[in-house]
Design brief:
The complex is a heterotrimer of chains A (170), B (174) and C (343). With 170 residues, chain A is mainly α. Helix content of chain A is 66%, strand content 0%. Chain A starts with 7 loop residues before the first helix and ends in a 6-residue tail after the last helix. The longest helix of chain A is centred in the middle third of the chain and has 22 residues, at 56-77. Chain A is globular, with a radius of gyration of 17 Å. In chain A, helix 2 crosses helix 3 (30-47), helix 5 packs across helix 8 and helix 6 packs across helix 8 (144-164). Chain B has three domains: 4-55; 65-124, no CATH class; 139-174, no CATH class. Chain B is mainly alpha-helical and 174 residues long. Chain C has two domains: 13-195, outer membrane lipoprotein receptor (LolB), chain A (Clam), CATH 2.50.20.10; 213-333, 3-Layer(aba) Sandwich (Protein Transport Mog1p, Chain A). With 343 residues, chain C is α+β, with helices and mostly antiparallel strands. Chain C has five helices and 22 strands. The chains are: A mainly alpha (170), B mainly alpha (174), C alpha+beta (343). Chains in contact: A-B, A-C, B-C. Chains B and C meet through strand 1, helix 6 and helix 7 of B and helix 2, strand 1, strand 2, strand 3 and strand 4 of C. Strand 1 (137-138) of chain B pairs parallel with strand 18 of chain C, so a sheet runs across the interface.
């Protein structure tokens, strides 16, 4: 591996929180977050051959976004029937492990889940992974102006959802 | 009186909070905020959402999440098991039984390796791994590919292509 | 700049000949003595290349061709008998035959016949002048005949291909493809040429099953079909029973990409290739008289690529197929973001 390029295991270890956070906020539950992180790590592993040291987090966030959007598109093409119980699942759906902020975190996740993906993705990329508008535009393939308006509308929707649920702030 | 500021869109407010405006734009927004209570109200709205989301942004995955993910990534491409297996954690229920899987310990630095052992055991107890299905072996007919290339070239107007049938015969023993 | 109409080669030979004659008529006045009027050298070169295409459809001939090609450090040679009867080109080596009658090509190797159906063009091949610098000059004497030479150069000035076109008939008499270092990578040259009516005495057995191939406009999921391969653009896509066939052209050279989903059985590949590695991917390379072949697998797809381009052009063009599986979003991101500092 070239100098300065981490292995995928190092990425998973050093940036696990980041990967999980973005995935969880995009997907909304741990099962899907798990698939999302796993698929992202696979792509990260493949992509590392061509990776040149740069903004690692931006690069990873892009990959997670693409995996997520691919999955959204895939689901849209095929209507999902009621999923049978998957005996392969180890983890029952669990809320985030951080007990102290469970309440707010859950409320926010619920509210985020109500947003259409087109709005949820840019808001998450901005506030959870802290990408610039330009990076978000690149990751999602829409013009910067669209990113800006979607973040704004997404945040307003989020706030409206939270207010309706009685959540007033940290 | 038409003011240029009338044509400012409120979505500039989010960009304002995120530091994505030019100096000129920022000045315009601040001027607008000074004048318009609607703008101020909308700023509070989005600032609240932004602050809240950023407050809970970073979080840890639940227990067992990384074990399953790492195991899945390693087995997905049949990567060889690395030497120096570190004994893992026992499991209580059958869902996480048998395989010794190293937990992802974020505090650990240094050259640790993430290894999922006992692939057979993992398969036997159906851990949450995504196994890539075995694909059919492909035996490309290289010689025909060469002839087809020549045929395609000559058919699609390649000026030299009419002569390419000459090529394949002298080459491959089919 | 006027372009000659491109002939549709899947017309039956007789009709093709008529189309060719009509098109040639436009050149006939201008041709002798190189009186091209006010066309630029590049236009003259393109007209010459167009002429070679027409010529094979309109002139019957029989001849001997010596084919040489570089295989690693070795230069190999073979002699092929070629006849062109009514637009059907036939080539023989030691009793094996390839004959190309437009929409169908037949190969007889030993006792085995194979038929290959080629679907008519889905797209236009680009003009050779887009990516190549073309010039003409008086050419060498080939098979006792005088020729004009068309030279195609890369952007850095090195010659990629030299073709010698018969002054009298417009037939292609010699073609050399050169490496960046100026060595001849592949060449064919007529050593004997007899013009005049010929007949072909080879017929494929009746009922020969030709591999099915049908043109498609979009490539199914799971296959990789970049719209460009280096300077070559994707001209036609076809679905075959066991995968997808893409054909790229830069106006001068062309590349076929066969894709099949699955895992490559390396042991089933023919002998005589060399293993090479490109951007971390292992590939099997074959150097053939008509082109170079590269076989590899990546992300669940087995690629078999054939190209008559010089090695440097082919290798550069294969980049698009050896990148890790990337969605269009990732590619846009790559382009826009580029390298950032470590955070």
């Amino acid at each position: 591996m070239a100098e300065g390029v981490p292995t995928w295991e190092e990425i998973a270890r050093d940036h696990g929180r980041f990967l999980y956070s973005v995935a969880y906020r995009l997907a909304g539950n741990n099962d899907d977050a798990q698939d999302l992180v796993q698929e992202s790590l696979l792509r990260i592993r493949r992509g590392l051959e061509r990776y040149e040291p740069g903004s690692l987090e931006g690069w990873m966030a892009r990959i997670v976004t693409n995996v997520f959007l691919d999955e959204v598109r895939r689901k849209k093409r095929r209507p999902v029937d009621a999923l049978p119980d998957d005996p392969g699942r180890v983890l029952p759906p669990t809320p985030a492990a951080d007990e102290v902020q469970t309440g707010l975190s859950d409320e926010i996740q619920r509210a985020l889940g109500e947003l259409p993906e087109d709005f949820r993705v840019p808001v998450v990329l901005c506030d959870v992974s802290d990408l610039s508008y330009e990076q978000i535009a690149a990751a999602t393939g829409v013009p910067i102006g669209t990113v800006r308006s979607r973040i704004h509308r997404g945040r307003r929707m989020l706030r409206a959802q939270l207010t309706a649920a009685g959540v007033t702030g940290p | 009186m038409t003011d240029a500021r009338d044509f400012l869109a409120t979505d500039m407010l989010s960009a304002y909070l995120d530091g994505e405006l030019t100096d000129t734009e920022r000045a315009e927004v601040e001027a607008q905020l000074a004048e318009s209570s609607e703008w101020r109200a909308e700023l509070d709205e989005v600032r609240g959402a932004r602050t809240m989301l950023r407050a809970v942004a970073d979080q840890d995955a639940p227990e067992g999440f990384w074990d399953a993910v790492m195991a899945g990534v390693v087995t997905a491409d049949d990567a060889p098991v690395e030497a120096g297996i570190e004994a893992g954690v026992e499991a209580e229920d059958e869902a996480t039984a048998a395989a010794t899987v190293v937990s992802l310990d974020e505090k650990r630095r240094g050259p640790g390796r993430w290894i999922a052992t006992a692939f057979a055991a993992a398969a036997a107890v159906a851990l949450a791994v995504i196994i890539v299905p075995q694909r059919d072996p492909v035996r490309p007919d290289v010689a025909t590919a060469v002839v087809q290339h020549g045929a395609q070239g000559s058919d699609l107007g390649d000026p030299i292509g009419t002569i390419t049938p000459v090529g394949p015969l002298a080459g491959f023993r089919r | 700049m006027t372009h000659l109409p491109r002939p549709v080669r899947n017309l039956r030979p007789v009709r093709r000949a008529l189309v060719g004659l009509l098109a040639l008529g436009a050149l006939a006045v201008a041709w002798p003595g190189g009186a091209f009027g006010t066309s630029s050298p590049s236009e003259q070169a393109q007209q010459l290349l167009e002429r070679t295409r027409q010529a094979a459809a309109t002139h019957d001939f029989s001849g001997l061709v010596t084919v040489t090609w570089r295989d690693g450090a070795t230069v190999r040679k073979a002699q092929v008998e070629v006849t062109d009867a009514g637009g059907v080109v036939e080539a023989r080596v030691n009793g094996d035959v390839v004959y190309d009658s437009g929409a169908r090509t037949y190969v007889k190797d030993g006792n085995r016949w194979t038929g290959i159906a080629v679907d008519p063009a889905a797209g236009e091949t680009p003009s050779a002048a887009t990516h190549w610098k073309l010039t003409t000059s008086p050419g060498p004497e080939v098979a006792g005949r005088s020729t004009t030479q068309v030279v195609a150069s890369r952007r850095d000035g090195t010659v990629a291909q030299r073709t010698a076109v018969d002054d009298a008939t417009g037939l292609l008499l010699q073609r050399e493809v050169l490496t960046k270092n100026g060595k001849v990578e592949r060449a064919l040259v007529f050593t004997e040429l007899d013009l005049g009516a010929t007949t072909t005495d080879v017929t494929a057995p009746a009922g020969l099953h030709a591999a099915q191939s049908s043109t498609i406009t979009t490539v199914p999921d799971g296959y990789v079909a970049p719209s460009t391969l280096g300077d070559a653009t994707l001209v036609t896509r076809a679905k075959q029973s066991d995968g997808v066939l893409l054909w790229y052209s830069d106006g001068l050279f062309s590349t076929s990409v066969f894709e099949q989903r699955g895992t490559l059985d390396w042991t089933a590949l023919p002998d005589g290739g060399t293993d090479t590695s490109m951007r971390g991917t292992t590939m099997r390379r074959y150097s053939e008289p008509s082109g170079t072949v590269l076989v590899w697998e990546r992300d669940g797809v087995v690629y078999t690529c054939v190209s008559d381009a010089p090695a440097d052009v082919f290798d550069a063009s294969v980049t698009a197929l050896t990148a890790p599986e990337r969605s269009s979003l990732e590619r846009i991101a790559d382009f826009v973001l580029g390298p950032f500092g470590w955070n």
